[in-house]
Design brief:
about 290 residues, TIM Barrel, two-stranded antiparallel sheet, 11 helices, globular, binds iron/sulfur cluster
C-alpha cells in the first residue's frame, strides 16, 4: 500500500497554506493589472506568491491567457487565442523594473497556432528585460515549440540565464495528462539548450498516478538530457474538469526524491509539496552557481 494520503480525502495539512495578503502584494498586483499583464502567480492563485514577490521573483505569462492545448491538469482555458500583444515585451520589462525584481521568469501558454510558436516574442521579452534590468537574472519557462529546433534556437540566441521546460509528468501518463505533448520531444528541447551551454531546468508534478520507479526513470532521463536544475511539487486539481489527484505524496517522500536527484547529479533541486516551476527560482540558480 503506497503511503501518502489518498485523494478524495481532504487535502492533507501539509498542503494548506495561507497567502500573506500584505500591502506589498496588493501593490504588486495593482502594477500588474495597470500594465495589463498576466502572471502565473496570480493566474494560478499560487500560494507562494507573497513569498516570491518579497524575495524579488515573479513569473510573467506572455502570449495571452488562453492556450492551444488542453492538458488535463491545467487551469488555463483552451482555444479562442488572440494575436500576441506587440507591446507586451516592453510592458513586462517595465513591470519587472517597477517591482525591482532580481530574478524574472517569463513563461507562456502553448501557441501551436503561431508559425514560430511565439519564439520571437520570447526573445524580444528577454531582451527588453535585459535592457531595463541589466542586473537581473532572466529565466524562460518555455513550451516545446512543437519540437522545432530553429524556434528553440531563437530563444537560446537571446541568452536567458536559465532555460526551463517542464516535462510535467512521467512518460506513461502523457497520453491521458498531456495528450498534445511528447515526452521524447520535450527531452530533445532540453538537450538542445544544455548542448548550447545553457543551464537547463525542468520540473514535474507527482500525485497523478506515477510510481516511484517511474519518477526515478524520469529524473534519470532529465539528467541524461543535460538538466542540472530540477523542481518537483504536488499536483493540485484546479477545477472539477481537471484530472483528479491520485495521491498526496508525503513531505518525507519529497525529501527522498531530493536525495535521489542529487545523487543522480542534479546541481540544484527544489522538491516539496508546494514547490512550483519557478518557486524560489533565484535560489536554485544561486545554488547551481555556488557549486
Ligand atoms: S500547454 Fe501549458 S498552458 Fe497549455 S494547457 Fe498545457 S500546461 Fe496548460
Amino acid at each position: 500500500m503506497k503511503s501518502g494520503s489518498r485523494a478524495g480525502s481532504r487535502m492533507p495539512r501539509w498542503m494548506l497554506r495561507s497567502v500573506e495578503c500584505g500591502p506589498e502584494l496588493r501593490q504588486v498586483e495593482g502594477l500588474l493589472e495597470r500594465e495589463g499583464l498576466n502572471t502565473v502567480c496570480v493566474g494560478a492563485k499560487c500560494p507562494n506568491r507573497g513569498e516570491c514577490y518579497s524575495a524579488g521573483t515573479a513569473t510573467f505569462m506572455i502570449l495571452g491567457a488562453r492556450c492551444t492545448r488542453d492538458c488535463a491538469f491545467c487551469a488555463v482555458p483552451t482555444g479562442g487565442v488572440e494575436p500576441p500583444e506587440p507591446g507586451e515585451p516592453e510592458a513586462v520589462a517595465r513591470a519587472a523594473s517597477g517591482m525591482g525584481l532580481k530574478h524574472v521568469v517569463v513563461t507562456s501558454v502553448t501557441r501551436d497556432d503561431l508559425p514560430d510558436g511565439g519564439a520571437e516574442h520570447f526573445a524580444r521579452t528577454v531582451r527588453a528585460v535585459r535592457a531595463r534590468l541589466p542586473g537581473a537574472m532572466v529565466e524562460v519557462l518555455v513550451p516545446d515549440f512543437a519540437g522545432r529546433a530553429a524556434d528553440v534556437e531563437v530563444v537560446l540566441a537571446a541568452r536567458p540565464d536559465v532555460f526551463n521546460h517542464n516535462v510535467e509528468t512521467v512518460e506513461r501518463l502523457y497520453e491521458t495528462v498531456s495528450p498534445q505533448a511528447d515526452y521524447a520531444r520535450s527531452l530533445a528541447v532540453l538537450e538542445q539548450a544544455a548542448a548550447a551551454g545553457m543551464p537547463a531546468k525542468s520540473g514535474f508534478m507527482v500525485g497523478l498516478g506515477e510510481t516511484s520507479l517511474e519518477v526515478e526513470e524520469l529524473m534519470r532521463d532529465l539528467h541524461g538530457a543535460g538538466c542540472s536544475l530540477l523542481t518537483v511539487g504536488q499536483y493540485l486539481r484546479p477545477a472539477e474538469r481537471n484530472v483528479p489527484v491520485e495521491r498526496y505524496w508525503e513531505p518525507s517522500e519529497f525529501g527522498q526524491l531530493e536525495v535521489k536527484a542529487r545523487a543522480l547529479g542534479f546541481e540544484a533541486v527544489a522538491a516539496a509539496p508546494l514547490v512550483r516551476s519557478s518557486y524560489f527560482a533565484h535560489k536554485l540558480l544561486e545554488e547551481r552557481e555556488a557549486r
